[in-house]
TrEMBL record:
Main location: cytoplasm
Name of protein: Dephospho-CoA kinase
Gene symbol of the encoding locus: coaE
Function in brief: Catalyzes the phosphorylation of the 3'-hydroxyl group of dephosphocoenzyme A to form coenzyme A.
GO biological process, one term: coenzyme A biosynthetic process
Top EC class of this enzyme: transferase
Amino acid sequence: MLKPLPLDVKPAASFRVGLTGGIGSGKTTVTNLFAARGAAIVDTDLIAHALTAKDGAGIAPIQTAFGNEFIAANGAMDRKKMRDHVFSDASAKQRLEAILHPLIRAETALAINRARGLYVMLAIPLLVESGTWPQRLTRILVVDCDEQTQIRRVMERNAMTEPQVRAIMAAQATRQQRLQAATDVITNNSDIEALTPQVERLHAFYQSLIAKS
Ligand SMILES: CC(C)(COP(=O)(O)OP(=O)(O)OC[C@H]1O[C@@H](n2cnc3c(N)ncnc32)[C@H](O)[C@@H]1O)[C@@H](O)C(=O)NCCC(=O)NCCS
Ligand SMILES: Nc1ncnc2c1ncn2[C@@H]1O[C@H](COP(=O)(O)OP(=O)(O)OP(=O)(O)O)[C@@H](O)[C@H]1O
C-alpha cells in the first residue's frame, strides 16, 4: 500500500533528477511510477504539447515560419505533418526548435517553481543533446531500452514504419552517449512489472540523498 502523496510539500529545491531516454524508451511509463510515490514530475514533452495546442504560445510563430498548412483545422499544430517534415529536413527541425525550445525552457522554469512533492523529476527527452541541462541537475536517470524494443513499441503506439522511427532515433543521442551521461539507469527491456523494483530502489536512494543534504 503506497503512503498518501505529499502533494503540498515544496520539494528540496537543490535536488533535481533529470530523466531521459530515446523515443519510446519508457520515460512516461517510468515517470508515472515515480509520481505515484510522491515525486513531482515536470514533463517537457507535455509542456511542448501545450505550447503547440490551440492558442498555445508556439502556434503563431509556427504559422508564420511554416505556413498555414502546419496548423490543423482545430487550431493546434498538425503534429504528424510536422513530424514527417522535421525528421526528413534538418533545417526545418532547427527552425522548429528555435521557436519552441526557448518557450519550453521558460515554461519549465515556471513548472519547477510550482512543483510540489518529495523532489522534482524533470523528464527531458533531449537532456543529453542539450548543452545546458546536465550541469543544472543533481542526478541524470536514463531509461535504457534496446533499439529493437524501442522501435517495436513506437511502431505499435504511433502506427509508424521502422524507417520513420529510425529517422527520429538518428536525430537523437545514441544509447551509448546517454549511458555515458547517466548517474542512474533503469532498464526497460521486459515487462512493466520489472520496472517497479528499480523505481523503488532509486526512489529510496534519492530520499536518502536528500536526507543527507
Ligand atoms: C516533432 C514533433 C512535431 C513530433 O510530434 P509527436 O506528437 O509525433 O511527438 P511528441 O511531441 O510526443 O514527442 C515524442 C518524442 O519524439 C522525440 N522528439 C521530439 N522532438 C524532437 C527533436 N526536436 N529532436 C529529437 N527527437 C525529438 C522525443 O523522443 C520525444 O519524446 C514534436 O515532437 C515537436 O514539436 N518537437 C519539437 C519540440 C521538441 O524538441 N520537443 C522535444 C523536447 S521537449
Ligand atoms: N515495459 C514495457 N512493457 C510493455 N510496453 C511498454 C513498456 N514500457 C513502455 N511500454 C509502452 O511503450 C510505449 C512507449 O512508452 P512511453 O510512452 O512510456 O515512452 P516514452 O519514452 O515516454 O516515449 P516518447 O519518447 O515517445 O515520449 C508506450 O505505448 C508504452 O505503453
